[in-house]
């Protein structure tokens, strides 16, 4: 029986590593064939594609013909006729590529500081018949750094493409060199490709060190370099067979015009599923062996066993011969899931959720549930709005809104968990970065409404009520828009709730929906002169603690402490400069900050740049300098920690934006036809990228069951 009690009460307070959520299914082209949804309600059975394996004591695995299934079915938001592995295309259609590639490494889904590479990726495996433990191949086998510039990755020499070519450092170098050229660097002063294949399997890359005229000097401290070197996710390389011709064309391009033509040609070079199959260009334990395995809404990948051109080490413990990628949009995804035609999928089954116990079949259940620390959302403020530039107003709005209701109406009560700490990080990174004493010293902004306090804050901002609407000191009604993209259903429910909460509080609030491109362009301050919104909802996630505390103009970098440079152009706009007064979004850079952590003392009618002289003890900080220094070399852990604390205090005091919750997350799966790790096993605690779906399938953690006595 599926247990649907309140999942939040069961979750560990540990948090985990990475969310880079996909933007939307609306960008997908194509539809499944008529009648294809949900026709597969039972898995195919017992094709004897794998050899029997033997344990060290001579015990053999059960007869493969007795497997309950020979296929594990997953879903990807894409279509076979639009799939494109090429990462340089204007629109990313590569979704699904992770199932056809080697695991880079794995990060812990509860504790982001833990990562597995190489020999460390070994698990006791009592649920795997015939094996005491399983060892997973990770493309990055090991890493090391040498501050202040240099990083190395050692790649596993067992990693090959389907066609047998080595997936080595030379391949990575050439693939990355194509990216270097596509990004327009060939004729740019100060630009060189900062990487080399030091040997066939050892890749060396480094930060800029002013090695050529016009180049930046970008030294970094050891913790930051280590975070970069130990990455568990990244672009999946294409082989040298793809890179070499493009590199020859780039090298031969002698004019900017010809160079631009080659860039355009690369961006138009579609790497389709058929091309992958014909050339053997994928990696990992499953392969597209033939174009006959590609249908209009699915593709069949086969284990790289002894019948493959290049067998994969995971064949020793994977007992599922086929991996079926099912393609389509969100409607088809829901239909297949409801009909039992998806065997493992990211997310958690909770009431009033997309994945809920009322619609999914009984043989599907959660196999792991956890709090996702770098999966959350935030309310963005444009400080250039005359109301939002006032400190007490931002505080009043955050205090007046019922964030529990916002989360419940947007994501569902059991998916949305309010943040405990207001540091500008999500809770996992807060708890791994700061001491409990420091976290307890910060001001805690309420997640339930405190309208009485919010009213006091508005009065301190100089506002009065005219009927039901707040009026600013200049006599202007408080009008505010909540801008949302129509592509994210969760945000629509949350945004409508924020709009209503604002109206209840006395703000003349409106709610605007835009398509993805229009919305993102209005948030984008990297390519535009400034932000074109009042408030908006955006994801809030960073892979490491360093990701939060920086300056960034790009709209997609959603959890940076500061916006970009108001005075820059092009790439100069990306980050605000030390000495600047404000960011392009109006956030204060030259700031007074109370000496006592957690103090919110400020003068009445405080504007963008409050003067705390005579109000409270304070220090003057240049936040642009702080976020630069936090990356710079240092031998003092206390010095580095103090910089992190300064950033947390700035966020806690000024509220440049407001991160209000994180997600419950997990994985649900077919527990009838597959065996899974138990509660005491940690194999379900590791992911490469957005979730553990590809880890459990490619890693052989999902095992076809042999239990014929189970009620089917």
From TrEMBL:
Residues 24-69 are annotated as: Disordered. Residues 24-47, 55-65 have a biased composition (Low complexity). It comes from the Archaea. Gene3D superfamilies: Dipeptide-binding Protein, Domain 3, Periplasmic binding protein-like II. PROSITE patterns: PROKAR_LIPOPROTEIN. This is Extracellular solute-binding protein, family 5 Middle.
